[in-house]
């Protein structure tokens, strides 16, 4: 088991993300994960820095902690050739062994900005499949070309490659994507404690790490913790089918207008009691996940790092640093 920290890039500036990654390393976390979004979920979040620049800065400022995208859509806004190059460069900057490339089928919120139509989920899975072929092809070295149903690659070469390519973790919100992760990925990435996802991943041949994001909200009192969870993460109450399809921040503001603070309580470990946080982590461990990225929706990141170091770290099974 490894315990990581989710860098909430929509809620904080790029400089603060780098600082929090340094704090996470000092607090004893094994890895950090950062979302790769163009827009924040909610207008009130106020930030959405470029993930690859932030990762490069973190790689330069840390020595031990693992790094991962959580997750990148490698088509539409990007071409997989660019993702292959970005991931290879990030891996080299992170000593060639600390970086994991998390990929998924994306959200319209972030991908529509380049003016291309938003495909159906079936088509997006097909595009993700072709993207993975292209990325792995380029990581083999040399000039490469690819002709798929959706994507093309013409005479491309990534010149700077790590000795060993990064692991690829494929995000899944359902059985079809989990099966794709088992077939073509090196790891699984999810956000729900759903045993069906890990089961489908393994049934399709997946035997690598299983990443998941664990929603927590630390504060000195429960009321403050729930209020902050509602302010920062009420978008999560809409579910992935909605999150993937809404095109704009204004749509998420409208869709979450009737989400209450009490609605957050069932999903989050919240407040000052470590037992409640441990129970939230155990739900994901019991569902078969072994790389758990703690998401802090509380108002005080430094307070959470202190809470983790003093109250949680020794109670969670996190024996080895990532990589």
Class from helix and strand fractions? alpha/beta
Mean pLDDT: 95
Compute the number of structural domains: 1
Which of globular, elongated, flat, extended, rod-shaped describes the shape?
globular
Fraction in beta strands: 15-25%
Number of strands: 11
Largest sheet: 8 strands, parallel, barrel
The level 1 CATH classification is Alpha Beta
Oligomer description: single chain
Please trace the helix and strand order, writing H or E for each element.
EHEHEHEHHEEEHEHEHHHHEHEH
N- and C-termini, Cα separation: 13 Å
- CATH fold name, please? TIM Barrel
Q: Output the radius of gyration.
A: 19 Å
Query: Can you identify the CATH superfamily?
Result: Luciferase-like domain
Strand line-up of the largest beta sheet: 1-2-3-4-7-8-9-11
Domain Luciferase-like: 12-291
Protein name: TIGR03557 family F420-dependent LLM class oxidoreductase
Organism: Streptomonospora wellingtoniae
Keywords: Oxidoreductase
């Amino acid at each position: 088991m490894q315990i990581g920290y989710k860098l909430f890039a929509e809620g904080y500036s790029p400089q603060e993300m780098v600082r929090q990654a340094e704090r996470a390393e000092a607090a004893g976390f094994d890895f950090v994960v950062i979302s790769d979004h163009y827009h924040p979920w909610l207008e009130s979040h106020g930030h959405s820095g470029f993930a690859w620049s932030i990762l490069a800065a973190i790689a330069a400022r840390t020595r031990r902690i693992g790094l991962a995208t959580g997750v990148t859509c490698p088509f539409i806004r990007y071409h997989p050739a660019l993702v292959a190059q970005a991931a290879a460069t990030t891996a080299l900057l992170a000593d060639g062994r600390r970086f994991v490339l998390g990929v998924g089928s994306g959200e319209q919120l972030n991908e529509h900005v380049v003016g291309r139509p938003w495909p159906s989920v079936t088509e997006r899975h097909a595009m993700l499949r072709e993207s993975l072929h292209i990325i792995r092809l380029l990581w083999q070295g040399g000039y490469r070309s690819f002709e798929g149903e959706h994507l093309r690659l013409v005479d491309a070469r990534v010149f700077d490659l790590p000795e060993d390519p990064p692991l690829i973790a494929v995000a899944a919100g359902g059985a079809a994507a989990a099966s794709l992760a088992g077939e073509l990925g090196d790891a699984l990435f999810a956000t729900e404690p759903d045993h069906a996802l890990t089961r489908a991943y393994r049934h399709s041949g997946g035997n690598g790490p299983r990443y998941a994001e664990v929603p927590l909200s630390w504060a000195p009192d429960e009321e403050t913790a729930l209020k902050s969870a509602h302010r920062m993460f009420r978008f999560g109450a809409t579910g992935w089918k909605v999150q993937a399809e809404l095109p704009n921040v204004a749509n998420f503001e409208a869709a979450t207008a009737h989400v209450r603070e009490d609605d957050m309580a069932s999903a989050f470990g919240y407040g000052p009691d470590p037992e409640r946080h441990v129970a939230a982590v155990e739900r994901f461990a019991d569902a078969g996940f072994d790389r758990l990225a703690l998401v802090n929706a509380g108002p005080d990141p430094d307070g959470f790092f202190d809470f983790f170091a003093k109250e949680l770290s020794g109670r969670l099974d996190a024996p080895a640093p990532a990589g």
